[in-house]
Design a protein that fits this description.
- The chain is of the alpha/beta class.
- The chain has two domains: 7-38, no CATH class; 48-298, Ribonuclease Z/Hydroxyacylglutathione hydrolase-like (Metallo-beta-lactamase, Chain A, 4-Layer Sandwich), CATH 3.60.15.
- 23% of the residues lie in helices and 25% in strands.
- Strands 8-7-6-5-4-3-16 form a seven-stranded mixed sheet. A seven-stranded mixed sheet has the order 9-10-11-12-13-14-15. Strands 1-2 form a two-stranded parallel ribbon.
């Protein structure tokens, strides 16, 4: 039988040495026969965002298109090629896929996504939800976050009994925060139609995913964006006119107006500039990044 009275207790304290100035607690408590060990100082919670796909609805190269952009993508490959847009948010204790495009199965396999707790969709169009049936075969339960009227359309056009066994619908409402303990989500209307953006708040950092917003934003959306650390915007084309989406030039102006720290351009279509040309243009402002398939952003 073990004599536990002879064992010296060990305590883990979740602080770093920098929290103490004059006294080292290791020495202070040692005189009482108590051993302390420092927990790692990780500098706070971080968020990792992986851009699984960064193309618009048609992807690049587009099917049966011989435009300069698509021709270059076929010949040169690399960052010129864009699968349909999908993002993976690695949040504290929760991995969340944003959008489920038709080629999501290939994206999940290509980027080796094994850990997933939830899927959030910002709209019910095919390029954003067309791959949802692939999750009939996901081996573990998943949350499915969608606005209620949006979910009714998805249920009618894409849902199956098998998805019902895997997914649990969690409704979200614009302007109403969803708390996940160590982070929160605040959806907002991005267009008059059933299209929503997302504010992710974690450890004092704010990340805005504006989805397919137009240049005509609500005042509420502008308030949410003001001073955000990161703004991710779908910009299919380079310059106006484009009534149903904000353009690259308009997004850059929005960054200035909102005082955003970093602007990420994604959801690029073949009418936009190729990746290398967009990068050359964006170099004028170090706070602008042109996303590419497989890019990882840490916040």
């Amino acid at each position: 039988m073990r004599d536990w009275s002879l064992r010296q207790p060990v305590f883990i304290i979740p602080v770093s040495r920098n929290n103490f100035t004059n006294v080292d607690p290791l020495q202070k408590f040692a005189r009482y026969g108590v051993t302390l060990a420092y927990a790692p100082d990780d500098g706070g919670l971080t968020v990792q965002i992986k851009f699984l796909g960064t193309g618009a609805a048609e992807g690049i190269p587009a099917i049966n298109c011989d435009c300069h952009h698509c021709s270059r993508a076929r010949e040169e490959g690399g960052r010129l090629v864009r699968e349909r847009s999908a993002l993976l948010f690695e949040l504290p204790g929760y991995s969340m896929l944003v959008e489920a495009p038709p080629d999501i199965r290939d994206l999940i396999n290509k980027h080796q996504v094994h850990n997933l707790q939830g899927i959030l969709v910002t709209q019910d169009t095919y390029s954003h939800i067309g791959g949802i049936k692939e999750f009939e075969w996901w081996p573990r339960p998943l949350d499915f976050l969608a606005e209620p009227t949006q979910f009714e359309v998805i249920r009618e056009e894409h849902w199956t009994d098998r998805l019902d066994d895997v997914m649990f619908h969690i409704p979200y409402y614009p302007g109403v925060a969803l708390s996940f303990g160590e982070f929160s989500l605040v959806p907002f209307a991005a267009r008059r139609e059933s299209v929503f953006g997302l504010s992710v708040n974690v450890n004092g950092k704010q990340i805005i995913y504006a989805s397919s917003t137009t240049s005509r934003l609500t005042n509420y959306a502008r308030c949410l964006m003001a001073g955000a650390d990161v703004l991710i915007v779908n910009t299919p084309t380079f310059e106006p006119p484009k009534e149903d989406h904000i353009t690259v030039l308009e997004a850059i102006e929005l960054k200035k107006q909102a005082g955003v720290g970093q602007l990420i351009l994604t959801y690029i279509n073949h009418h936009n500039r190729p990746h290398d040309e967009l990068e050359d243009y964006a170099r004028e402002d170090p706070g602008i990044t042109v996303a590419y398939d497989g890019m990882i952003l840490e916040v």
